[in-house]
Amino acid sequence: MGHGHGHGSAADAGSASGRYVTRLSVAFGILLAFFVLEASVGLLTSSLALLSDAGHMFTDVLGVGMALAAITAARRPATNKSTFGLYRIEVLAALANAVLLFGVAGYILYESIGRFMRPHEVAGVPMMLTAAAGLVANVVVFLMLREGANESLNVRGAYLEVLADTIGSVGVLAGGFVTWAFGWYLADPIIAVAVGLFVLPRTFKLARQALRILVQQAPEGVDVSALSDELAALPSVTEVHDLHVWTLTSGMEVASAHLTIKPGADNGGVLVAAQRLLSERYHIEHATLQVEPAECAKRCQQLTW
Q1: Rounded distance between C-alpha atoms, residue 72 and residue 233, angstroms
Q2: What does the CA dihedral 75, 76, 79, 83 come to, rounded to 10 degrees?
Q3: Distances (CA, A) of 16 to 44, 149, 271
Q4: In angstroms, rounded to a whole number, what is the distance separating the alpha carbons of residues 69 and 264?
Q5: Domains of the chain
Q6: Which InterPro entries does the annotation name (predicted)?
Q7: What are the angstrom distances between the C-alpha of 181 and each of 128, 131, 185, 232, 274?
Q8: CA 288, CA 254: separation in Å to the nearest integer?
């Protein structure tokens, strides 16, 4: 009987996360300052669109803050109590970001209904100036987080929030111009609804990705049946069971399996072949594999789960 482990994925992911701590810290400061500005002007001008944008900016502040806290916590080494480390905190933060975005979008859509029936007078010029300042802040943060969004689900959550807020700032800017130039106050709730509807599909996708990881579904793009067949087709392997593939956090796929082998087979050779297959074909670097004779496999078949 033998066991095999592949390492490197956790260290690589931790290193990648560490590269974005400084960027997230700067982004957090920028977003916090402009949230205070937008919320203040939105209240003074009675602009629902500007308050909507400020609400999204607030979720940006919380989202980036949670991303920063989660990445910092995830970089701590594994302990006897947390043997995998705290990488799942990143996924929880991404899910929390999605919940916040759903809440803000729902509130703005609800408030917009009242504004359609009773339009409020809105000061267009302060609305435009504040939206323009918010747009600059969002573009800066957007560019800072773009690279990290491809490596970390958590950073991607913050990135999507900033992307939505960038679009929202453009909309508020346009709404402010229409309000100032034509006195059409319905532009304000229309822009607010458009921002909310733009955010919802992206928020749903983020929440779905986070939930897939939390319920330990197989990573997207990994056909577990095909993987089992390929492992079973390795030399000296007669059967594969107890195969599990899941994602620990973004970019960290993990697998475990029992490989039944022929009598007299080379355990080490089977382990090396299986690890190579998982690494090269499925990019799974951390795998725990148990190589066992047929009599041990019978014990596994008696288990109920």
Answers
A1: 42
A2: -20
A3: 42, 11, 29
A4: 51
A5: 11-214 (1.20.1510.10), 224-301 (3.30.360.10)
A6: Cation_efflux, Cation_efflux_CTD, Cation_efflux_CTD_sf, Cation_efflux_TM, Cation_efflux_TMD_sf, CDF/SLC30A
A7: 11, 16, 11, 71, 68
A8: 8
C-alpha span between 74 and 216 (Å, rounded): 18
The single-letter code of the amino acid at 91 is V
Would the pTM count as exceeding 0.85? no
Q: How far apart are CA 50 and CA 40, in angstroms?
A: 10
Strand-pairing partners, residue 3, are: 290
* Residue type at position 280: E
Question: How many angstroms separate the CA atoms of 41 and 37, rounded?
Answer: 6
Question: What is the Cα–Cα distance from 99 to 107, expressed in whole angstroms?
Answer: 12
DSSP tally for the chain: helices H, then strands E: 10, 4
288, β-bridge pairs? 256
Please, are residues 248 and 254 in contact by the beta-carbon 8 Å criterion?
yes
**Residue showing tokens 């089977």:** 270
Render each residue's pLDDT in the chain as its tens digit; 305 residues: 555 554 444 444 444 455 667 777 888 888 888 888 888 887 887 777 677 777 767 777 877 777 777 677 666 776 777 767 677 777 887 788 788 778 877 877 777 777 777 766 666 677 778 778 878 888 888 887 777 666 666 677 677 777 777 777 787 778 778 877 777 777 777 877 877 777 788 778 878 888 998 989 999 889 999 999 999 999 999 999 999 999 887 778 899 999 999 988 899 999 999 999 999 999 898 899 999 888 776 777 666 66
